Amino acid sequence: MINTKQSKSVTLPDVLTEPQIAHALRLYEAHGMEAVAKIQAEVIEPNMGAINTRLGQENSPRYLAYAVVHVFSKATEQVRRGLRDLLDQDAAARGADTVEATVAENDDPQRQGEDARQ
Questions:
Q1: What's the CA gap between 101 and 79, in Å, rounded?
Q2: How many CB atoms lie within 10 A of CB 69?
Q3: Of residues 102 and 50, more confidently modeled
Q4: For residues 28-54, b (16+ Cβ closer than 10 Å) or e, as one string?
């Protein structure tokens, strides 16, 4: 769970889409606790409009990146492996080879506007 500025508890899927979670997880696995800046730059900042809309408030990209890394650091390797498998299965069901194949599509700024309107 992530506590936002107004002490509202949310889960990781409340903040990020599945492809964004997968991208962040891969960054965390490659860089560990040093992944905060990469997650902020590659996952959080390009999607701040949609994230703020989903959460109903303005949020700090740096805080959210730290929170994402914190969630991953508390998860066991077995949980992270299970998450990767579930995300890849979902991507395969949608016709993508892996979740990574859908990240660029979901991070498209035009699609963010569509997501916010839905």
A1: 22
A2: 22
A3: 50
A4: beeeeeebbebbbebbbebbbebbeeb
Handedness of CA 94, 89, 114, 47 (dihedral sign): negative
Cα end-to-end distance, the chain, whole Å: 24
Question: CB–CB of 52/58 below 8 Å?
Answer: yes
Q: pTM of whole model > 0.70?
A: no
pLDDT tens track for 53-90: 999 999 999 999 999 999 998 888 888 888 888 778 87
Contact 15, 51 (CB under 8 A): yes
Lowest mean pLDDT: which of 6-10, 15-19, 50-54? 6-10
Nearest to 21 by CA among 118, 115, 116, 90: 90
Q: 3-state DSSP call for residue 117?
A: helix
69, amino acid identity:
V
